[in-house]
Prior knowledge:
Layout lengths: L2 H27 L6 H5 L2 H20 L8 H5 L1 H14 L5 H19 L2
Helix pairs in contact: 1-3, 1-5, 5-6
Amino acid sequence: MNELAIYSCILVTGTLVSSFSQIMLKKSAQKTYSSKLREYLNPLVIIAYGLFFCCTLLSLYALKVVPLSMSPILEASGYIFVAILSFIFFKEKLTKKQLIGMAMIIGGIVVYTLKF
């Protein structure tokens, strides 16, 4: 596996972890808390923001090799990850439009990466 592929995988992994963080924040937002302080200082929120910080570090690390023009293309996979994780954890239905949109995102990523 070449260096670009490895660093691209690191970038996509960061995007996946970021998607899990978003799911954790939504899970936390669905609960009721006795005070605003407890709402923001509960373990789920703290872990989610810690993961966001780690994702930022992973992205910065990956961008040492991944061209800046390729970064938004790979990070678009986050839309797919969030939709799938919402389906798994929140039982949200995937509509036909969402599935078409996800297929278009995957198609765009494939077309863009074929030129590399």
